[in-house]
Amino acid sequence: MKAKAFVLIETAVGKTKTVVISMQKIEGVKSVDTVTGPYDIIAIVEAENLNDVGDIITGRIHTVDGISRTVTCLVV
Questions:
Q1: Is it the case that residue 45 has pLDDT exceeding 90?
Q2: Is the pTM of this model over 0.90?
Q3: Ordered domains of the chain (ranges, CATH)
């Protein structure tokens, strides 16, 4: 069974649309949705194991310009 996480993302003002476009290109990101509330985007990440999920988040998502903060919720 693949590892899965919900990533709650806050973006800089005016950057949500460009962050969504950038995230849709990242391998392992299965969905990216703009939402209302305290977060601007919720993404679903899937990979073979938890280490790979962590690598996607720290190595690829955190480097997207316009992301100011993330919270990762692992599916158990």
A1: yes
A2: yes
A3: 3-74 (3.30.70.920)
